[in-house]
Amino acid sequence: MEVTIAQIDNLKAIMTTGSFVTKEPMARHTTFRVGGEADVFVEPTKEEVPAIIEYCRKEEIPVTVIGNGSNLLVGDKGIRGMVLCIGKGMSDVTVEGDVITAGAGALLSKVAAAARDASLTGMEFAAGIPGSLGGAVVMNAGAYGGEMKDILLDVTYLTAEGEIVTVPATELDLSYRHSAIMDMPGSVVLEARIRLEKGDKEAIQAKMSELAAKRVEKQPLNFPSAGSTFKRPEGYFAGKLIEDAGLRGFTMGHAQVSEKHCGFVVNLGGATAAEIRSLMEEVTKRVRENSGVELVPEVRFVGEFE
After folding, report:
1. HSE of 52 in the Cβ direction (CA atoms, 13 Å)?
2. Which of the residues 102, 224, 245, 285 could staple to 267 if both were Cys, CB 3.0 to 4.6 A apart?
3. What gap in Å lies between CA 254 and CA 266, rounded to an integer?
4. Is 5-85 assigned to CATH 3.30.300.180?
5. So which residues are the catalytic ones?
6. Looking at domain 221-302, which CATH architecture does it have?
7. pLDDT bucket at 18, cuts 50 / 70 / 90
8. Which tens digits make up the pLDDT trace of 253-300?
9. Which CATH number does the domain 89-204 belong to among 3.90.180.10, 3.30.450.40, 1.10.10.10, 3.30.465.10?
């Protein structure tokens, strides 16, 4: 449904601090650098979120919640209703002892840097993940042997019913690329607390630098992508399965299976969401035919594709 002018005016009145735009190209807000326009795009403060969500619920305006857009493929026809971006308006980071409290919009790189500066170890794995804390919590993001579940203390979120609750990480059913929050439509992560261990600042920086060098060496960071395109099948590696199917460098339009790392689908420049999705579907089909393994996208499809 289209958002009416009256609804836009009412939403603007709620947004006293955060940013508010209409007809916003989503290509500006995804690491794939593709996606059509969102009818309304807001980047609120923590205090504004409940009122915005409540108004949209009453007016039956669809709400799509995003973070840094690092795990999304937005359709070429955009997103109807409102996109609520948990971003810089909710990015404060504070350190008390061995606990870091951060807004859901804080970039993982920022939180990891705060941990390093406080000589806290355990978050080095996340320093190079190009996402926000909220998104990382929802999908239990991980890299290089570490996952959010290893360090997460608790999460504060807004329920679909409009209640703000804080839940310990032990109750979030955290597993590979999954949390219970994924099964709670309409919930919005607002804040999270992380518990780390005391460490040596120089050693922490050395580990972060080592992992950054590995990323540069192995990942196609020179092209827009959404990171690992498919989840790791149990007992296999997605990139190896794709390579074994003869798909290294496989291209459809301006979308390509990276020649550097087959687990990444990249935008060579000017790719459409339709091209990327079609390529992913073809990769899934050929891997199934070659190995019998069914690849599952790690990338989330959002908006209208056709």
Report:
1. 34
2. 224
3. 9
4. no
5. 177, 228, 298
6. Alpha-Beta Complex (3.90)
7. confident
8. 999 999 999 999 999 999 999 999 999 999 999 999 999 999 999 999
9. 3.30.465.10
